[in-house]
Design brief:
mainly alpha, rod-shaped, about 95% helix
Length: about 120
């Protein structure tokens, strides 16, 4: 009844329409606020998940770098040992060759002495 009587007053009908539109806008804003809060929560959850994943990736990267360093150190150690073994083998071969030449010279000298 009050609304009906207000609509009879000039300009009140316009104000009532404006009020209804404002109430719709307020309802829409409340709905948008709820959606924004839900999105913010989802965003926070995703950010936390991404940060945890980033920490995990960085940890695995450090572990991989450490493993690579250890592998390189081991490869260098093996290379150094192999180099030492090669040098020893060369020295042994040179000594065997030298001994073989001395033995050959001794045998040759003995053979020449036997001929005489």
């Amino acid at each position: 009844m009050l609304v009906a009587s207000l609509t009879a007053i000039p300009g009140c009908s316009y104000l009532l329409d404006e009020r209804a539109q404002l109430q719709q806008a307020i309802s829409r804003l409340a709905q948008l606020k709820q959606e924004a809060n839900a999105l913010a929560l989802t965003n926070s959850q995703l950010t936390a998940s991404f940060e945890a994943t980033e920490v995990e990736i960085r940890t695995k990267l450090k572990e991989a770098e450490l493993s690579l360093t250890k592998a390189n150190d081991e490869a260098n150690r093996i290379k150094a040992l192999a180099q030492i073994e090669v040098e020893q083998a060369i020295n042994d071969a040179a000594e065997i060759e030298s001994q073989a030449k001395r033995d050959a010279a001794t045998i040759k000298n003995q053979a020449e002495e036997e001929k005489q």
